[in-house]
Amino acid sequence: VVAVMGERLHIGDAQIGLGTGTLAVGTVTGTGAITNMGTGTVTLRGNSNVGGDVNLWAGTFGAAPAGQIGSLTVGGNLTVSSGVTILAGVNRALSPSNTVYTVTGAIVHAGGATLKVINGGPALQIGDKFFIFNQAVPNAMAVTSPGYTFQNDLAIDGSITVSAVAAAPSITTTFTGPNQVMLTWQTNWIGGVHLQAQTNTLG
Fold first, then answer.
1. CB atoms < 10 A from the CB of 44, how many?
2. Are strands 71-74 and 142-144 parallel, antiparallel or unpaired?
């Protein structure tokens, strides 16, 4: 199941088995079910709606690419296996301010999965609260985020709240050739630093 990024994909029942790498699918709609079986990264885009179940058995899955905001409405159950990573983008300058997973049925999680939160907007502030799921997530889903620490209330009401903000990263520039530059920053910000603009085309 592959669609060019930004297109709309209509599904019956789909099994996605990406081994490694990243598969960026467009907006998904349909009455069937989705099962993510591979160990790679699968991301949707926009406001997706799946009438049946969504089964996340392995890999990384997002309603939108990392740092972007999207939504996924699941008409059935959302099952999340141990070892799975779910992506959620946040941006306090936008409305809605975060990725949302709305599940009509039950969220089935036996433990061991991780919610990875990527900020795609201005710096978050302590106390910023985001409802990622429309219901409680059972059995302690961990939360990670480059540069931020969150109070984890997923098991209470599906929400997370910023509780600590790391110092802004210092970016080191190293020229590795006549037309090459390398940018590096602290490891706790890996995955959380994004290119905002560029003055020349990529060579």
1. 26
2. unpaired
CB 80 within 8 A of CB 114: no
What does R_g of the chain's alpha carbons equal in angstroms? Answer: 18
Average pLDDT over residues 72-100: 96
For 69-94, letters b (16+ CB in 10 Å) and e give: bbbbbbbbbbbbbeebbbbbbbbbee
Q: What is the pLDDT of residues 122-139, one digit of tens each?
A: 999 999 999 999 999 999
Q: How far, in Å, CA of 130 to CA of 95, rounded?
A: 11
SS (H, E, C) 47-97: EEEECCCEEECCCEEECCCCCCCCEEEECCCEEECCCCEEEEEECCCCCCC
Taking alpha carbons only, the member of 114, 133, 137 closest to residue 191 is 114
Angle, vertex CA 103, rays to CA 72 and CA 132, nearest 5: 65
Higher pLDDT, 191 or 86: 86
Tokens matching residue 46: 């926009």
Q: How far apart are CA 148 and CA 116, in angstroms?
A: 11
Between CA 115 and CA 170 the distance in angstroms is: 26
